[in-house]
Amino acid sequence: MKPVQIGIIGLGNVGLGALEILAENARDIALKLGFPLEVRAVSSRGVAEKTLPAAFASALKTANWRDVAEHPDIEIVAELVGGTGVAREIVDTAIARGKSVVTANKELMAQAGAELWDRAIAARINLAMEASVAGGLPIHAVLREGISGDRIKTLYGILNGTCNYILTEIESRGASFGEVLAEAQKEGYAEADPSADVDGFDARSKLAILSALAFGERIVPADIYTEGIRRITPVDFEYAHQLHHTIRLICAARQTPEGLIVSVRPSLIPQSTILASVRGAYNAVWVRGKFGADTFYYGKGAGSHPTGVAVVSDLMRVAREIRSGSPERVSPFAHARLGEYKPIPVTVHRSAYYLRFRVEDRPGIIAQLASALAAESISIDAVLQLPNANWRDLPFVITVEPATESSVRAAMARMAELNFLIEPSLAMPMELPL
Prior knowledge:
Strand content: 15-25%
CATH architecture of the largest domain: 2-Layer Sandwich
Mean pLDDT: 91
Structural class: alpha/beta
Distance between the termini: 48 Å
Number of helices: 14
Largest sheet: 6 strands, parallel
Shape: elongated
Oligomer: single chain
């Protein structure tokens, strides 16, 4: 059977990783498919400076992505550029030319994936995006096909390796956020502008995609309540450990009788849960179904080789369909059509909460904070204060019984008017994953 011709656009870490895998694993790929994958063309603005595997010496090398997306012989275009500008043009052009698309682009798929899939269906080509979330985990395939017979009730994920690395370094060493971030940037774990990671936006895009897969709703990043990790300090881990918890940036999607609640935020989770053991730059997803109960998926969330494997696996799946002539395609979102329902506000979510304060110590502080909580019908569970000699900057914690997010926010607004607070209080839900 003749080879399937592919084109790679974008030669960053993921693109080069995919090419290396295609070269070194060519024989096994051909044995699994019954035909080879042939890299016909590659494109990058700096293609002249890139060192490609010798196996692709004869491939077209161009700085103009259109030479790949419009190439008459190429059957699959791998868009590995990222972002929503040029990448959208590449995908639009490939679909218009009747070429299937493989992408690792979480931002584009989160914002416009459902629309692009509708266009792919109309064009009778395929769109595959396994590498867009948790590169080393086949979580798309799991939700799309592996457990598609179940009805998903809850999904929790640690989906940003940079944040997880920073949090676990703060926890293990007692270093500050700024100190660990600087180290992560130096080691290449964090970008020069880390906002997308540490402010939760990267994880938000990934959760939008997984929520669509799990629940069949058309969710965009703007629908998801998002907080980052900039305010987490070593003292928060000290108090969390006193409570037998740890802190992770948790991506959560919960199907409730009232509707779907989605959020990305730092949360306390019990140290006894499996998610608490996810450390460093690893990702994990924990899913509960109505019938199949709990399943857990763990691995590298990023990196040239783990993400490259996901890209190559998608290339193989799409190539197999092209050669078999299958008229039926499984949607990358696991549902033939996504619903148009909006998630309900996170303010209705009910949970126990961890409230951390920094105050200038004086008599009556606890009474005033308790009064603010009582005004919103919130009950105190515990008050914790570790030894601290600096009465001008005293951190302590109050945990509260389960309450709605809206009532906790209202209480915090009352507290903001108190003159002994050095900074606004920090609230984190105390989650009980599954």
